[in-house]
Amino acid sequence: MPVLSKAAESSPQGKEQTVGIDDLAVYVPGLYLPLEGEFARSRGIDPGKLIKGIGIERMAVPDAHEDAATMAAMSLLLLMRRSGLQPDRIGKIYVGTESSADEAKAMGTYVIGMLEQVYGRGSFRECGTVEMKAACIATTLALESQSYWLAAEDEDKVGVVIASDVAKYPLASPGEYTQGAGSVSLLLKKNPRLLSLEQVYGHFTRDENDFFRPMGCTTAVVNGKHSNQCYLDAVTGAFDSFAARAARNGIIVPAASECVTDFLDHILFHIPYPRMVEYASAAIFRHDWKGCQRRLKVEAEIGPEPGEGDGKDAAAFQAAQADYARHFARSPQFLEAFAAKVKDTATLSRQIGNIYTGSIYLGLASLLELDRIQTGQRLGFGAYGSGCSALFFSGQVEAQAEDLPGLGLMKRLEERKAITLADYEMLHEGKREKSVVQPEQEFVLEGIDSQGYRHYKFVE
Ligand code: CAA
After folding, report:
1. SS3 readout for 130-171
2. Counts of helices then strands in the chain (DSSP H, E)
3. Helices (H), 331-378
4. By three-state DSSP, how is residue 404 classified?
5. What residue owns the CA closest to ligand 1's atom 25?
6. What is the CB-side half-sphere exposure of residue 362 using CA atoms within 13 A?
7. Is 178 in the pocket of ligand 1 (CB under 6 A)?
8. In a 10 Å sphere around its CB, with 0-12 CB exposed, 13-18 middle and 19+ buried, how is residue 62 labelled?
9. Contact criterion met (CB below 8 Å) for 267 and 341
10. Ligand 1 pocket, 211 CB below 6 A?
11. pTM of this structure
12. Which residue's CA is the closest to the ligand 1 atom numbered 9?
C-alpha cells in the first residue's frame, strides 16, 4: 500500500479546479567554462573552494549570438514543441528577467517576434505580454500574478511564464564564479499535470543594497556577504508569512509536536550557488524546529542556542550565534532533513551556475530529472530577489506528473562544449563577434541597428 505523505493527508478533500504548473522546459547555452583547472589557476583560487565551498563545477556561458531574449525564445519553443502547444491557446506570456537589453520594449515582444518566424506572422496576436523585473524573484511574482488571472480565465487559455537571464559580475571579482545563463519556461494551466498551486503566498520585502545593477552597467554590483544575510532574513520572513497564512487557510495546521517543514516533502530555494541552499535550509529548519520536539534532540547534541540576554555584548552574541549555526549545520538531524528534502534540487545548478530568476525552477527540473517527486507530495518554494524580497509558496504534485516526458537536460549538459578561459573572457566582455559553435535550429541575435533595435532570426 503506498504511504501517503503528510501533504496528501493534509490536503482538503474534494478539491475541484486547481491552477498550476502543467509542464516546463529549460534552455541552457551550448558552451560552458569548467571552473577547475585554467580558471581556478588564473584567479588563484583553490578548486576545492569552488567545487565544495561554493558548489559549482561548470558555468554556462552564452555564445556570441545569444542573449536573454534568444534564450527565452528557445525555452518557449522547447516548451511548445514538447507539449504540443499552439500559439492561439496562449493568453499571456510574462517574462521575468533582470538582463533586459531594452529600457522600454518588453522582452516578450522580441520573443513573440522570434516565435512567429516558426509559427507564422500574427500567430501570437491575441497574446498579452509584460516584462517583470524584481531581481531573482521576478518569475515567481509573475507566476503568482498569472495564477490569479488563470483562475478567472474562462476561454480555455493557458499562460506562460518565462525566466531568462545572464548572471554577470566583473571579471576576477568574487561574484565571477557564481555566474551562469539559461532560461526556463513554465506552462500554467487549470488542472495542471505537474503541480497544483495551493494559492497561499507568504511575502517579505525590505529596502536593501545587497545587489543591484545601475542603468548602463552590464555587470551587477554586489555586497556578497551582506547579500547572503539579506537572502536568509527575507526567506525566513516569507516562510513565517506563508506558515501563518497556510494555518489560517487550513492547508498546513501542525499539531503540538509537529513543524511546518514536516508537511513539505521537498523545499526548493532560489539557487545563486548550490552552497546557498544549504545555508537557507539550515536557517529555515533551525527556525521552524524551534517550536517542536526535534529542537530538544538537536540541543542534546550541540547545546542550547545562545540567547540575546546571555550577558554577552553584541559582537560576542553574533560570534556565539555563528558558532551555533555552524554546529547546527553539522547536526545529524539537519543533515538528514537536508539530504531528504533539499540537496537534490541543486544538481543542475552545479553544472550551470546561477540563472537568476529561473534558478528556483532549475531546482524543480533537477527533481524531475532525478525522478525524485511523487504524486501527492507537497513542494515548498522559497524564492528570493535582491533588493530585497522573498516569497514562499507551495504546490502539490499531480498524478500525471509521472507521465510527463523527460526534460533531456542531463544529455544536453553532456553535449555542451567546454571553452577556454580566453574565449570566456572575450565573450564576457562582448569582444567576440563570431560564434564559438555555429548555430543550428536556434534563434540568434543577428545584429543591433543604428537605432539600437535588435534583430533576431531563426537559423535552420
Ligand atoms: N575548500 C573547501 N571549501 C572552502 C575552501 C577550500 N579550499 N576555501 C573556502 N571554502 C569555503 C568557505 O569556508 C565557505 O564555506 P562556509 O560558509 O561553510 O564556511 C565557502 O567556501 C565560501 O567561501 P567564502 O565565504 O570565502 O566565499 P567568497 O568570499 O568567495 O564569497 C559569495 C562567496 C559571497 C557568494 C560571492 O561569490 C558573491 O558575492 N557572489 C555573488 C552574490 C551572491 O550570489 N549572493 C547570494 C545571495 S544574493 C542572491 O541570491 C541573489 C542572486 O542571485 C545574486
Report:
1. EEECECECHHHHHHHHHHHHHHHCCCCCEEEEEEEEEECCCC
2. 15, 16
3. 332-341, 349-352, 359-369
4. coil
5. 225
6. 32
7. yes
8. buried
9. yes
10. yes
11. 0.95
12. 49
Q: Which residues are bridge partners to 21 per DSSP?
A: 188, 195
155: Cβ contacts below 8 Å, ≥ 6 apart: 91
Residue 224, ligand 1, Cβ within 6 A: yes
- Residue 395: Cβ within 10 Å count: 26
Is 415 buried (19+), middle (13-18) or exposed (0-12) by CB count in 10 A? exposed
Ligand 1 contacts CB of residue 323 (under 6 A): no
Question: Which residues, 6+ apart, have CB-to-CB distance to 91 below 8 Å?
Answer: 126, 127, 128, 149, 153, 155, 157, 158, 159
Best residue among 227, 275, 279, 388 to mutate for probing ligand 1's pocket (most ligand atoms within 8 Å of CB) is 227
Q: In tens digits, what is the pLDDT along the chain, a chain of 460 residues?
A: 334 455 554 444 445 799 999 999 999 999 999 999 999 999 999 999 999 999 999 999 999 999 999 999 999 999 999 999 999 999 999 999 999 999 999 999 999 999 999 999 999 999 999 999 999 999 999 999 999 999 999 999 999 999 999 999 999 999 999 999 999 999 999 999 999 999 999 999 999 999 999 999 999 999 999 999 999 999 999 999 999 999 999 999 999 889 999 999 999 999 999 999 999 999 999 999 997 888 888 988 899 888 876 667 888 888 888 899 999 999 999 999 999 999 999 999 999 999 999 999 999 999 999 999 999 999 999 999 999 999 999 999 999 999 999 999 999 999 999 999 999 999 999 999 999 999 999 999 999 999 999 999 999 9
Q: Are 265 and 378 in contact (CB under 8 A)?
A: yes
Question: For residue 114, what are the CA distances in angstroms to 156, 454, 455?
Answer: 25, 11, 9
Distance CA 393, CA 379 (A): 8
CA 329 – CA 333 distance, rounded (Å)? 9
Chain position carrying cell 571579482:
173
Q: Name, in order, each residue with C-beta under 8 angstroms of 114's C-beta and a sequence gap of 6 or more.
A: 69, 70, 73, 443, 456, 457, 458
Task: Identify the residue whose C-alpha is closest to ligand 1 atom 39.
Answer: 224
In the chain, helix, strand, coil percent, each to 5?
Answer: 45, 25, 35
Nearest one of 233, 149, 238 to 197, comparing CA atoms: 149
- For residue 165, what is its C-alpha cell? 537571464
Pure H helices in 67-135: 68-83, 107-119
Centroid of ligand 1 to alpha carbon of 54 (angstroms): 5
